[in-house]
Amino acid sequence: MIVYGAGELRTLWQIARPILMPGMVTLFLLSFIGSWNNFFLLPFVLLGSEKLYPARVGLETSPTALSIAGAGQPLYPEVILGFLVSVLPTLVLFPFLQKYVARGLTFGAVAGE
Known about the structure:
Layout: H1 8-36, H2 41-46, H3 55-61, H4 76-105
Helix pairs in contact: 1-4
């Protein structure tokens, strides 16, 4: 779409933004998932207490806290619920942003887009 007489801001908004949106959304999703599942840098190096660990790290590193006292058997419903809660933000974000990722993959391949 060519917009004659448009200023820089309108050109940026109507031409550059639709082209850049799939890449920005894909970058956001990858960086969000990477920081949400951060196992190495933040929890182990910067945080001093296990109470401050993210949910995923806490579930992975302290299985003794999630076991029946004396039996050493994990409380499976609590562990499964913990992992569901830790995956929930990714499961909520991806369906809403999936169209941008798919559009970015097929942007140059489909005629008329």
